[in-house]
Fold:
Amino acid sequence: MHRILLCDPLDESGLEIFRDAGVELRQLGDGDSEREQLPEIVADFDAIVVRSRTQVTADLLRRGRNLKVVGRAGIGVDNVDIPAATDLGILVVNAPTANLISATEHTFALLLALARNVPAAERSLRAGEWDRKRFIGLELDGKTLGVVGLGRIGQAVAHRARAFGMKVVAYDPYLDPLVAKRLEIEMAPLEAVLAVADVVTLHLPLTDETRHLISAERIARMKPGSMLVNCARGGIVDDRALLEALESEHLAGAALDVFEVEPPVDRRLIDHPRVVSTPHIGAQTREAQERVATQTARMVLAALDGSLAVTAVNLPFRAAGPGGEPYLRLSEQLGRLASSLLGGSLKKLQVDLWGVDEELHGAVSIAAVRGVLRPFLGEAVNFVNAEKLAEDRGVEVVRATHRQAAEYSSLIGVTVTGARGTVELAGTVFGESDLRVVRYDDYRLEFRPEGRLLVLSNRDVPGVVGKLGSLLGEAGVNIADIHLARGSANREGEVDAVAVLRLDQRPAEAVLDRLRALPEVSKAQLVDLE
Structure:
């Protein structure tokens, strides 16, 4: 009989599923005294279920000597130490689709309240006023909605927006244009979406790539008099820049359910007359809470029974065998690097395997899919749902196996194809866990797929390396290591080359612009694989 500890309250619908399964349940008390004993209590349980209150730290996970599963009743897993859980072989599961409808409807609740001045008009009426002229609103009909992030929630918002008579234009670098066409949604680059949208709504996870995606510079590119809605995650928007845009009246208003700091310490956004705000309640509906409870309960039970058909947030490395983890990490890093170098929408991913243990083929291929999607989707993509997310976005995934590689005992090749061309990478594992990239397109070079990588394409002429070193040195950026490769000469005798530099500091965008402005440099891309 499995023993499950409920660290936070769970809806009765989830409790019924646990009881029907015949597991032993214990509910942690609300008092501080029992919570202080949690590290001792957790030792005898097979699984714990938490919401946002309980912090599942590395120390707590280590105390769970029998712990196999952490169930996060919700979508976000910010309060769970994912790397520690993975190192300890503890599966972390959540309920990623439970709030889809609730978040979608709350987006429109905020948008309509903002467009029609509902909160301010209601306060005025309660104060005994009858000031109809003061609350001139806007119709949604005929307006353009810019959807940033076209996952499940973004697609649901776009679908409902058309019922309001809105035109929809969207940005999602991982959605194939053919899928967008089937959904009857016009796709465009982010800057173009911001420039034409009367309303911009965000539906993205918070990752290193999406943090402050809506920056001061991008807010300045938004259509004057437009509105911004954020029911996704705080931190995607630079709150300070948003406040300045509202003060200058560049933006007509904002509707916010999330903030960079929660609860907000700086109340200027909340108190602004052109802001409609709620305290992160996008998932706070009866239906969503029931789905959170039932999905989490079912996932925890399935995980305890050893099923991989669960929404696991972390990769189940143990399933790959003792020597399989390095190959999964290599495949994922190759995917991340290739996807970042490609940029834009992705149409096809091909994974080629030479000399890789047959038992690892499926896991290694899915790891590549996860890596390709991670720059934009973050931890929302995992070992279980990676292929489904790729399918949802119209990405064709092809796996090919070959005989043992001639130069290496094993080799993993990742080729990504999109609207902007093709990127090919190949890598291998030296020793037990030394990951190396050994080919980039037609160039043969060797480097570790880790850290901050500056990847340049340039003409092979004297002085390029010196200019790079001087420019980065002046900016206070140290080069940890550098790897060079040259191609063959063309008819004019010119030779192209590539350089991969690992940097100790992240260079500012202005520094990258100066690099790109060098006459010898044709392309410069920064890829952060931290």
Notes: The first strand starts at residue 3 and ends at 6. The chain has four domains: 3-97+287-304, 100-277, 323-449, 451-530. The mean pLDDT is 89.
